[in-house]
Amino acid sequence: MTTIAVVGSGSWGTALGMVLADNGHDVRMWARRADQIEEMNTKKTNEKYLPEVTLPETMSGFTSLEEAVQPVEVVVLAVPVKAIREETKKLLEVSNRPLTIIHVSKGIEPGTQKRVSEMIEEEANGHANLHSVVVLSGPSHAEEVSRRQPTTVTVSSTNLESAQYAQDLFMNQNFRVYTHSDLVGVELGGALKNIIALVCGVTNGLGYGDNTKAAIMTRGLAEITRMGVKLGADPLTFSGLSGLGDLIVTCTSVHSRNFRAGRLIGQGLSLDDVLEQMGMAVEGVRTTQAAFEMANRFEVEMPITSAIYHVLFNGIKPEDAAGELMGRVKKHEEEKLTD
Ligand SMILES: NC(=O)C1=CN([C@@H]2O[C@H](COP(=O)(O)OP(=O)(O)OC[C@H]3O[C@@H](n4cnc5c(N)ncnc54)[C@H](OP(=O)(O)O)[C@@H]3O)[C@@H](O)[C@H]2O)C=CC1
Ligand SMILES: O=C(CO)COP(=O)(O)O
User: Fold this and answer.
1) pLDDT tier at 148, thresholds 50, 70, 90
2) Which residues contact 332 (CB under 8 A, 6 or more apart)?
3) pLDDT value at residue 319
4) What is the pLDDT of residue 320?
5) Nearest CA to 228 among 105, 137, 337, 109?
6) If you measure from the C-alpha of residue 256 to the centroid of ligand 2, how many angstroms do you get, rounded to a whole number?
7) How many C-beta atoms surround the C-beta of residue 214 within 10 A?
């Protein structure tokens, strides 16, 4: 039995806390809202994020980050990407133990174009108590994990032993965990598929059907792979769980917030209205901005990312963006990814 803190008690943090509790670990959940912690401790529910789910007795909630992390050497960091730097900083300040941080967030930071593990390492600069950073990613909606439905994910780290440690913590009969050595590819796949899911949602909102969805998913994977290879990832990683696997689940599942947000945009709502209506992390929006910057910076062609960027941030109508994509110059489908 290991004592583990989960920082962030939204859908994903809560579902992963349940997996750890099922595995016999003592799980200390942190949330910033006192009413939520009160609910989790007394009613054993988290109605806002995972309705109709009962939390295990071995999950306890804390509003004090210090209290939550004080006895632990492993933290699952489960906040939206925009909160990663702040929570990492606070976490390292209040802990006096060597920490393994398992991050589970899927996105890239606009402005810096950093992956989440890079943001964590940057914030830890000067702190002796960061032992290692692991990413956990793959096709895994919280709603299904919390109902103990068979799910597979991948963990990756520059420190293989830490990835194996995370694998052992999470692995059970319903939750199968693979290790992977390509940290860059695993993080990029998880982040960039959210953009493609947004676009699939937009096409759905426009009334387009399955041909369009298949086109966006396939050509989306092509541009994710193109960018990944440019940044040093193994192209094969994008055919794995954290690439194609997560792309499939996010572009096709009713649970996907990115897909649902995209659908509302396709139906004509403004981005602000959509984000307010969703009330949960829609990571694809900020990651679209970051990926658009990366495409320009590294001169990588990402036409689908570019189209949704102009829809989200420049007022281009979704149907006009679709027309632009279809009217691009003739192309050969196969491409050479490396020089
Ligand atoms: N949901 C899923 O199925 C999956 C999600 N992920 C990834 O996990 C990450 C978290 O997503 P998810 O749990 O779904 O998001 P939710 O929207 O369900 O929950 C977000 C959680 O983070 C907290 N939070 C939001 N902003 C801040 C902040 N600035 N500082 C501290 N805490 C904050 C929220 O607290 P409050 O309630 O107080 O606002 C809430 O507890 C995302 O990167 C997502 O892509 C990955 C795989 C699956
Ligand atoms: O990453 C996810 C499933 O693997 C969750 O996707 P959404 O954030 O779109 O719900």
Assistant:
1) very high
2) none
3) 97
4) 98
5) 337
6) 5
7) 12
Higher pLDDT, 318 or 281: 318
Distance CA 207, CA 263 (A): 9
Q: Which residue type, as a one-letter code, is found at position 90?
A: K
**Over residues 103-109, mean pLDDT:** 98
Its pTM surpasses 0.90: yes
pLDDT (average), residues 236-264? 97
Q: How far is the CA of 141 from the centre of ligand 2 (A)?
A: 6
Enumerate residues lining ligand 2, CB below 6 A: 106, 139-141, 194, 197, 246, 249-250, 255-258, 283
| Closest-lying ligand 2 atom to the alpha carbon of residue 281 | 8
Q: What's the CA gap between 195 and 224, in Å, rounded?
A: 10
Q: Which fold has domain 191-326?
A: N-(1-d-carboxylethyl)-l-norvaline Dehydrogenase; domain 2 (1.10.1040)
Class of domain 3-181: alpha beta
